[in-house]
Amino acid sequence: xxGNRIHLLRKEKGFTLTExxxxxxxxxxxxxxxxxxxxxxxxxxxxxxxxAALQVPLDAILTGxxxxxxxxxxxxxxxxxxxxxxxxxxxxREFLAFNKWRLDQTKETGD
Length: 111
Known about the structure:
The protein has 111 residues and is an all-alpha fold. The chain has helices at 2-13, 17-24, 28-35, 44-54, 58-62, 66-69, 73-85, 89-109.
């Protein structure tokens, strides 16, 4: 649902309803109605204004898939494979931290 995606992106970006409405130059009441699903078919012009104000691709609001599409297919496959293997986000963060540490060690020793 478009309204739900707008709401989530607004919260993620730290905007209040009033701030986003002002930034996008749309009516606060209309934005609220869209977010709550009262108005479920906003115009493309409205969605474009919201996307611009949130600084996200239009697809992020329309389909919710823009973030994943920015990854090349090989990275997408690796991410999905890691998720399917049961690795947790914390385990993945630990791996990244270890890998960064390992690279730093290599730089220090010149190997």
